[in-house]
Amino acid sequence: MRKQTKIVVTIALTVVIPVAIGIGTWLVTQKRVAQADQSNMNLVELPTIEMTRLYLESSVRVPRTYSGTIRAGQTSEMGFNRTGRLVRVLVTQGERVKAETVLAELDTAALRAQHNELLAQRQGAEALLAELVAGPRHQTVAAARTEVADLEAQQSLARLDFDRRDRLRSSGSISAQEFDEARLLLTSVEQRLQGARLRLAELEEGTRSERIAMQRAELQRLDAAIERTQVEIDESRLIAPYDAVVSQRLFDEGSIVPAGSPMFRLVEQSSREAWIGLPADQITSLDVNQIYDLTIDQQTFAAKLHAVLPELDAVTRTQTAIFYCLPPQQEVPMLNGIAMTIGDPASVPKNDRASEETGRRWCELAPGQLVRIQLDHEIPQSGFWIPVKALTRGQRGLWSALVIVTDLPRPAGVPQDAVAIERRDVEILQVDSDRVLVRGDLHDGEFLVSSGTHRLVSGQWVQIARQTSEQQLP
After folding, report:
1. Interatomic CA distance for residues 304 and 361, integer angstroms
2. The pTM of the whole model exceeds 0.85
3. What DSSP character marks residue 14?
4. DSSP string of 261-320?
5. What DSSP line would sit under 47-103, residue for residue?
6. Mean pLDDT for the stretch of residues 73-102
7. CB–CB of 99/241 below 8 Å?
8. Degrees, nearest 5: CA angle 294-299-305
9. What is the pLDDT of residues 281-340, one digit of tens each?
10. What SS3 class is residue 334?
């Protein structure tokens, strides 16, 4: 037994111990290789990031876009003032017309007949007025004077006869009847003489002024009636009040057009306006007669603010700002300090081909077209502007951002230019296309991971893709 035990011990010492030593040596070697591989892996697999410095804004200016529509300077519903039969239509839809162009005509045969009748009546009234002003003819006055002289002679004869009979009556030579006949004859002659004298005085005085005034009033009434018929004849022709395009034509020849019904819809050709609804607090930042940029179908137009309507729209709760297009070859005043004014005078050339082209394009815009203006809106709220792509979803519906920290211990094998990142919860205050205004556990001057946050976790070590002088870590 002792001999067998000695043999087993000898075999164990000669076999097991070298094997154990070999295994230990292999494990140490594998550990060193693994550490070297891990170190190389850290150098190769560290993700690359881009960063940006955070700046605390005490108040922010957020661009806001407001929409409106293009309108023609003038739009008219053209119609006749009287009912009539349409005899001529001279234009059609889509046709461009100049000012004073005749568009359509009504039948005027009845009006012209009435007009001629009134002219004839006026001639008669005018002749009668001339007769009244001229007074009686001299032959009529002479005849009246002759009648007065004849009656005066008859009066003298009648008085002589009466005086004779009066003397005879006192002596009883004649009867009472004969005396009465002589007396009544004298009275009759005297009364006829008085009437003749009054008629002569009337003829010599002429026509009464009241009758002349009445005839003149009749003449004026006929003049007014003639003028009214002439106006109706003139208004039987529709005439374009300005250069325009015929947008609608509602009746054809032969139709009976009711009074006041629209016949044409005209849209002014030479001017356009932009009507844009703006919040009441934004209106105060605008200056009348200054120039602003408007965007229409991705094209920029210069427009002058003409006026702001005083009332709020009941639906949109906005005030309407009216912008006028700039005519060609007009000098453009500059407004400093407002973001949406024209910053470069060369952007709206003066007295050159580009200015004429701008004015022409303005006038070619279709009414109803959508127009936009972008204005800066100042918000008294502090925060940090960060890119939208720097945000990641956090817990409980919050958002997070990754910032660079420099106070963490550096593990073995991590390169000296590598940095660690840390997650911070933030609250979104404003959204502006590709950036957002946030507040939270962020500090002025810190560095933010600006992209690639979806593949990073808090506490991870990363490498910076590039640095500028503004982005150098402390």
Report:
1. 16
2. no
3. I
4. -EEEEEEESS-EEEEEEE-HHHHTT--TT-EEEEEETTEEEEEEEEEEEEEEPTTT--EE
5. PEE-EEE--EESSEEEEEEEEEEEEES-EEEEE-SS-EEEEEE---TT-EE-TT-EE
6. 92
7. yes
8. 15
9. 888 888 888 999 899 888 888 889 999 998 888 888 899 999 987 655 444 444 333 333
10. coil
Q: How many helices (H) and strands (E) does the chain have?
A: 8, 24
Residue 276's nearest CA partner among 469, 66, 419, 83 is 66
Cα distance between residue 292 and residue 288, in whole Å: 10
pLDDT digits (tens, 9 = 90+) for 237-277: 999 999 999 999 999 999 999 998 999 999 988 788 999 99
Question: Residue 315, Cβ neighbours under 10 Å: how many?
Answer: 7
Query: Tokens 């910032």 identify what position?
Result: 403
Contact call for residues 305 and 321 (beta carbons, < 8 A): yes
Nearest to 459 by CA among 414, 404, 401: 404
DSSP string covering 140-162, please?
A: HHHHHHHHHHHHHHHHHHHHHHH
Q: Which one-letter amino acid corresponds to residue 41?
A: M
Residues 328, 363: Cα–Cα separation, whole Å: 11
By C-alpha distance, which of 346, 369, 397, 348 is closest to 297? 369
pLDDT in tens, 35-70: 544 444 444 467 888 888 998 888 777 788 899 999
